[in-house]
Amino acid sequence: MSETVKRAASTRHRAADSVGPARRDARLLIVGVGGQGVISLARLVGRAALEAGGEGRVGQLHGMSQRGGSVEATVVFGAGRTGFVSRGEADVLLALEPLEAARAAPRLAPGCLAWIERNPIAVPGVPAGPAEAELLAPVRAVTDRICRIDARAGARAAGAERSVNLVMLGALAVCGALPVGEDALRGVVAAARPAALAAFDEGRRLGAAALAARRGGG
Amino acid sequence: MGQNGRVQPRPSPLDPLLNPEGGGIELLLGNEAVLRGAIEAGIGFACGYPGTPSTEVSDGFAALAPHLGIPFEYSVNEKVALEMAFAASLAGARSIVAMKHLGLMAAGDPLSTIPYIGTVAGLVIVSAGDPSCLTSPNEQDQRHLADALHLPMLDPPTPQAALEATRFAFELSEGCGLPVVLRPTTRVCHTAAPVRLGAVSPREVRGFQRAPQRFLPVPANARRMRSEIEERLALARELIAAGDWLTESGEGRTAVFSSGAPSATCADLLRAAGAEKDIVHLSSSVVFPLPAEELVERLTSLERVLVVEELSPYLEDHLRALCQLHRLPLEVLGKRTGHLPTAFEYEPGVIAAGLHAAFGIGSRPAPDELAATPPVRPPVLCAACPHRSSFFAARAALGAEKHFFNDIGCYTLGCGGPLDAGDALLCMGAGFSLAAGVARTTGERTVGFLGDSTFFHSGMPALLNAAKEEVDMVAVVLDNEITAMTGFQESPTTAAASPREPDDAPGDIATIARALGARRVETVDPHDLPGTIAAFRRAEEHSGLSVVIAKRPCPVAEQRAEGRAPAPPLPAFTIDPALCGTCGRSSCGKRCGQGVDPGYERALIRARVLEDGAESAQPPVAPCTQRCPLYLCVQGYAAHIAAGNYADALELIMSELPLPDSVCRVCHTPCEAACVRSELDEPVAVNDLKRFVLDWAAEQDEPPYRPRRAPANGLRAGVVGAGPAGLAAAHELILRGYTVDLYDAAERPGGLLRSGIPAYRLPREALERDVERILALGIQFHPGRTLGADLDLETLLEDHAAVVVALGAPRSLELGLPGEGPETVGALAYLRDASPRRARAVLVVGGGSSAIDSARVARRRGAERVWVACLEEGSELPASAREVAEAEREGVEILTRARAERRVATGVELIGVRPRVSGARKPADFESLARGARALPAPQAHFPGDAARCLREEGAVSLEVDLVVTALGQAVDPDVLPDLLDPAGEAVSAAPESGATAHPRVFAAGDLAAGPRTVTDVIASGLRAAWGLDRSLRGAERADERRPPPLVSTEPPLGRPGIPRRDDGARRRPVELDPQAAIGSFDEVVGRLDEREARAEAERCMVCGLCGNCRSCVDLFGCPAILSGTDGALRIDAALCVGCGVCADFCPNGAIAPIAEPAQASASASAGAGAGAGANAGTDTEVSA
Question: Which range, of B284-298, B342-356, B452-466, B1117-1131, averages the lowest pLDDT?
Fold first, then answer.
C-alpha cells in the first residue's frame, strides 16, 4: 500500500470485511465506456437520493468521451456543494467495464467496495488487454472488497441486453453501502425505465448472490 | 425499449421544469437550472447553437418549447442565434441564446454593438466555459469580454445559483438595458444537484416599437449611445448591489475571495478542513460589473485574501486595482503571487494546495504517483460512422503527401490516428479556408473537410470565397444529416428538421455548392468505397475548385430517433481466420517491414479497389510473387535482407522452398522477368539475394531455420524418383506427418540436379546441403531401385497408403537430321557422361538451359569452337539471359534464328529462319516458332569465319564440327506407368493442382506429369502432389493447414501504383570467374554478393505487393468493431458491426464476409461506439474473495 493510500486510510477507514453501515457522506464513482449509460445511471442514483429525502450531487464528465472513450460520473451524498471524487475518495466503485475499473484505482478509498462488470470491452487498435487477474491488480492493491458481476449475461437473461448498467445498479442496490436504499433505487428505475425493471431486479439477484458468496467465503 | 421492439414513451426528466408552481426540489444539472430559470422568468424566445458544455440548455428548449408555446430554433451559427435573440428582445420578448465559450467569439460582431443599442426585453446570453479544454480546442476566458464590450456577466457556482442567476439576469438586463452573459463552466453545467424551484412568471411579448434614434447605431447615434452605456453600467451596479450576489461567511482577518465553480469547491474544502468559521469566504456570482462599494467595505477589515478563480487573474487584478484605488493595506494572494496556476480547471486538489500554501490549512495533497495505467481509451469515430470510409477513401485516393484540413466535431476524430485525415484544425468552418489559404500560398492542391453543420455554420462563405478565387482545392462535405458530436441536434440537412417537404428541404448541399459557384460538384455514398475513391480521384484530376459531398445519415442518430422503428439490420461481417493474413495462401507470421508504410499500403488498396475490383480473387501480391511457381514473397525476404534480418529472410524462403541451395542457383527467375524495377533500370537480382541468405545460413554453426514438422499421422507414403520434384514431395509429406520412403535408380538423390546441371552452375556441396537437409528429416532413401525393374507399383501400393511418382522425363528428343556426318548425342547423355568425349568443334542444337550447359561443358572438355544453334532470338530463348551471357563470355557462339538442316561429312548445314510475324516479341514457344519458320534462299557459305554473319547475310552456313549435341527437350519414358499416360503418350495424365491421376492412390509430379519444365516448376508440382495426396487421405481440412503454391496465374500482373522508389542504385552484380579460368575447371562461375552489396540490392526492391499480414482494417481503417486478440488474430464484434462492408471491400486476403445469419436486431441496434454486448458472455457470477 502506498504512502498516499495509507494517509487516506487513516481518515476514511472502514473495516474491510463488512459491508455496512453506509456513510451519510459516501462517495460513489461510476466508470465505464461511452455509450454504456454511465451518466444516466448516476442521475438515477442522484434522483433516488433526493426522493428518499437525502441529498446527493451528481458530477458527470463527458463530451468527446461519449464516442467510445472512457466515461465517469460521480455521486457525492450528504451536504456540500460539489460532486468531485478525488484521489482515494471513492467509497463505492461501480465499474461497467473492468479496464475502466483499473483506470479508476487511484481514486478508490482503501477498502472501497468495488462492483465490477466482468466483460472487458476492447480498446480499438490495441491488442486484447492483460489477463483478468493482472487487469484488476491495481484495484486489488487498494481493496479486497471486490464483487464481479456478469451483468451482460444478467441483462440478456432479463431480456434487456442494453441495460447492463441497470443490472449493475441492481447489484449495487442490495449492498447497503450507499445512503440510499434498494426501494428508493427501484422506485426511480420503475419510474424512468419501466421496461428495464427486470434488468434491475436481475442485478439485485446477482448482487445478493455475490454478497452471500463473499460472506460465505470470508 | 421493450423486447417486443415497440417504443414506449419515456417520461422526460425535463417534465418537472414545466411545473408552474415553485417550492419543489428537483435534481437538476446546472444547464437545466438555467433552463428552469429562464422559464421562471417568463421566457418568450429561445435559440442556440449546440456546443459542449452548453448543449443541454438548447436541447432542453428544443424539447420544452412546444409545451411552453414559444419559438425555439437551433440557429445555423452563434452570430445568427444572437441576432435572433436580440431581435426577440427588441420585439419585447424575454429571450435567451445558448452557446459555448467559442460561440461568443463567433457572435462577436453583433455582441459588440448590442450594448450600444441596448435591450428592450431581457436578453440573456449563455456562454458556457470550458476550463481544461475538456471538449474544446481552447479554454478561453470570456470574462475579459465583459468589461471590454460592456457586458454584465454572471458566473454561478452551483445549479441552484445558476437558476437564481438566470432569473436575475433577465431582471438585470431589463433594468439596465444591457444584454447579460451567463458564464457557467463545465463543472456547473454538468453537475446535477437538488435545486429548489421558483414560481413561473407570466410570459409577455410587447411587440416591436419603432425608435429610430434608439435602434440605428449610425455614427452620430453611436457616440450618444456610447455615453448611455456608462449610465446602463451604473444602473447594473445598483441592481447587483441590491441583490445577494456577493456572499460572505466566516470571520477573521484572512479571506478567500472566489467566483464561479471554485466558490463551491472552496466552501467544501474549508468545511472539510474545519476552517469555515475562521476564514472569511467571500464569493461573488458576479464577474462584471463588480459591486465595488460592497466589496471594499468587506475588504477593509481583512489583512490577507487569496483570490480563487479559474484561468486568468481577472478578479485578482480587479481586486488589486480596488485596493490601490482605495489605499487598502490588503495582501492579495493568487495567481500573480504563484499560489495558484493560471491554466486549467481547479480540481479540489489544486485549490487545496493553494489554501495550504496561503494559510497553512488542510493538507498538501501528495503528488500523483506514476503508476502503470491501462491503455488510454480515446474517443473514436463510431464503428457505425459512414465517414470513416470517406476519410479512408480520401487518403487512399489522394496519397500520404496530400495536405488535409479538418473540421470541428465528430470529424475531428479523423485527424491523426489510423485515418490520418487532418493535418491542421482550427475552428468551425475553417477546414475550407485553411485548405484554400495554403493552396493559394503554395500552389499545391489541398483538401478541406467540413461536416454538414459546420458547412452551414460558416463553411458556406469559405466555399463562396474559394469559388470566387477558383482556388485549386478539393472541398469535401461529410454530410451525416445531423449535428452528432454534441448530441444529435438537427442540421438543415436533417430530414425531419424542416417543416417543408423532404424534397424541398433547404439544406441540399449540392445545390448550395453549385449556387455558391462550384462548377464540379459530385455526391457519393461513402459506403461505396470504390465509388468514393474514384470520386476523389476525379476531383483531384481537375484544377480549380472541386466539391465532393459524401452523404449518408448518422446511423446512431437514426437508431436514437424516438418513435422510429429501427431499420432492418444488415448482417454483420466476420473475419475468416484461415484467410486473414495469408496473401491468399499461407502466413509468414512476420511483418517483414515492407508495405508497413501507411501511404504505400493505402496506394495499394486504391489500386486493388479501383483496378482489381472487390470480386477478384487475385490477391494483390507483387508481380514477382505472382509469376513465381513457388509463390515466394520476394519483397518480404528482400525487406528482411535490407534490414539485416537474415534469419527472418531465410525462414520466409525455406518455409516455402525445400531445395533452396539449389534453386537460388538454377532458378530461371520468371520473377525477374516480371520485376517492375526493370521498367526503370534492371530487375532486382532475386537469385543473388536468395543465394546470399543461403550462403549466410551455411556458414552458421547451427541451422538458423528448422522446418516445423507436424506430429506423425500414422500413414506411410512412397515417393518414386528423387529428382527435385520427388525430393520436394518427400519433404512436404514428412512435414505433414507421413512416414516417407523415397526410391531412386541412382545411388544419391538429386536426379537431374545431379546428372543434368553441371557443377560450375550448381556445385555439388550446395546440392548436398539440400539433399542432406531433406533426408535428415527421417526420410528412408532406397537407392538403386528402378520402377519397372526391381520395383512395381502394386507392391508399392501394398506398402504405402499412397504414392507420388516423380520420374522426370529422362529421354532426349531426337533431332533426326538427314545425311551422314558427325556423331550425334543427346544433351542429357552428354552432360551425364563421366568420361568426356573429346571434340574439337561442337554444335549444340537447342535454346534451353541444357543446350547452354552442353555448350559450356564442351568448352570445359576442350572444344575450341562451340556453337549453339536455336530458332529463338533474344529474350525468347528458354535459357536465362545470365546463362547465355556467361556462355558467350566463355567463347560460345550463339546462332539465333538458325535451324540445323542436314549432316554433311564435315559437319552440319544450318539455314536461317525468321518468325512468321516479323518484329513481334512473343514469349518463346518452340513449337510455334518451328512451325512458323520458313527457309530463306540458301546460297552456301563456308566455315571457318563468322558463322552468325554468314547466316545473316547468306541465309545459310555450313559448320565444320565433329560432335553434335541435341538439346531439344526431353520426353517421359513411355514404358513406366503406361496405364496412366495421356492419350498422346507424352506424360502421365494428372491434375495440375494436385497431381491426382486416374489411380486414386497414385499422384504424379514433375516432368512426368506435366512434360518438361524448369526445376522450380517441378518443385512446385511436387509440393502440390504431396498436398493432393494428403487431401485424398486425410481430407481437405487437415491438408489445407499447409497450402501448396497456386498454379502460376496467367492474369496480367496488377498495375503498380506510382510510388517513388527507395533507391536509385544500379543492380549489384556478384563477381564471376574469369572466362579463361572458368573453362579450365568446373568451379562455380557466379560468386555471391557481399553483405553490403546484398543489402543495397535488397533496397532496390520497389515493394509492389500488399503484405497479406497487413492489418489494414485495424491499422489504416481503424474501425472499432474490429478487435485484435493477444495472439494478433483479428475478429469483428458482431454487436458493433453495422454491416457496411467497407473493410471487406479492401481486405487483401478476401477474408471478410457477411455472417450468413443476420445479426440479432437488439445487438445491431447497439447505439454507442464502445457499448454493446459481446459474443461470449458467460452466465455465472464470479465473486472474488
Answer: B1117-1131
Mutate: best of A64, A72, A82, partner B, most B CBs <10 A: A82
**Mean pLDDT (whole number) for A20-34:** 85
pLDDT of residue B1053: 65
Name which of B134, B264, B1183 is nearest A63 (Cβ-Cβ): B134
Residue B681 DSSP one-character state = S
Q: Which helix (H) or strand (E) holds B843?
A: strand B841-845
As for how many domains chain A has, the answer is: 1
Q: When comparing pLDDT for B1018 and B1063, which is higher? A: B1018
pLDDT tens track for B404-444: 999 999 999 999 788 999 999 999 999 999 999 999 999 99
d(CA B287, CA B859): 103
Q: In the predicted model, what is the mean pLDDT of chain B?
A: 87
Q: What are the pLDDT digits (tens) for A168-188? A: 999 999 988 899 999 999 999
Report cis status (omega within 30 of 0) of the bond before A21.
yes
Share of chain B above pLDDT 70, in %: 88
Q: What is the pLDDT of residue B614?
A: 40
Residue range of the domain that includes A190 = 26-122+131-217
**DSSP reduced 3-state for B416:** coil
Would A166 be classed as within a structural domain? yes
> Could you say which residues from 35 to 74 on chain A have a Cβ atom under 8 Å away from some Cβ of chain B?
35-37, 42-43, 46-47, 50, 55-70
Task: Return the closest-CA partner of residue B662 out of B970, B1015, B969, B1012.
Answer: B1015
Whether residue A18 is contained in a domain is answered as no
For B7, half-sphere exposure in the C-beta direction (CA atoms, 13 angstrom radius) is 9
CATH of the domain at A137: 3.40.920.10
Query: Does the distance separating the beta carbons of B190 and A33 come in below 8 Å?
Result: no
Peptide bond into B289 cis (omega under 30): yes
Q: In Å, how far is B1059's CA from the nearest CA of chain A? A: 27
Backbone angles phi, psi at B782, to 5 degrees: -115, 95
A210 within domain boundaries:
yes
Amino acid at residue number B84:
M
- Other beta carbons within 10 angstroms of residue B596's beta carbon come to 16
Question: What percentage of chain B exceeds 90 in pLDDT?
Answer: 60
User: Within its chain, how far is the Cα of B963 from the centroid?
Assistant: 64
Q: Which of B421, B424, B479 is nearest to B453 (CA)?
A: B479
**Domains by residue range for chain B, with CATH:** 15-237 (3.40.50.970), 245-359 (3.40.50.920), 387-497+505-560 (3.40.50.970), 621-705+1049-1105 (1.10.1060), 716-810+972-1039 (3.50.50.60), 812-971 (3.50.50.60)
- For range A67-76, the mean pLDDT: 90
C-alpha span between B758 and B10 (Å, rounded) = 88
CB pair distance less than 8 Å for A217 and B1185: yes
Contacts of B1115 in chain A (CB under 8 A): 125
The pLDDT of residue A8 is above 60: no
This model of the complex carries an ipTM of 0.92
Residue B289 in grid coordinates: 460589473
Find the distance separating the first CA and the last CA of chain A, reported in whole Å: 21
Q: How far apart are CA B120 and CA B176, in angstroms?
A: 10
3-class secondary-structure state, position B288: strand
Average pLDDT over residues B547-561: 88
Are B125 and B182 spatial neighbours (Cβ–Cβ below 8 Å)? yes
Q: Does A75 fall in a domain? A: yes
**What residues of chain A lie within 8 A of the CB of B373, using their CB?**
103
Residue-level pLDDT at B1178: 31
Q: What pLDDT, on a 0 to 100 scale, did the predictor assign at position B1008?
A: 85
**CA B286 from chain center: how many Å?**
52
Within 8 A by CB and 6+ apart from B651, the residues are B588, B590, B704, B705
Nearest residue in A to B14, CA atom: A192
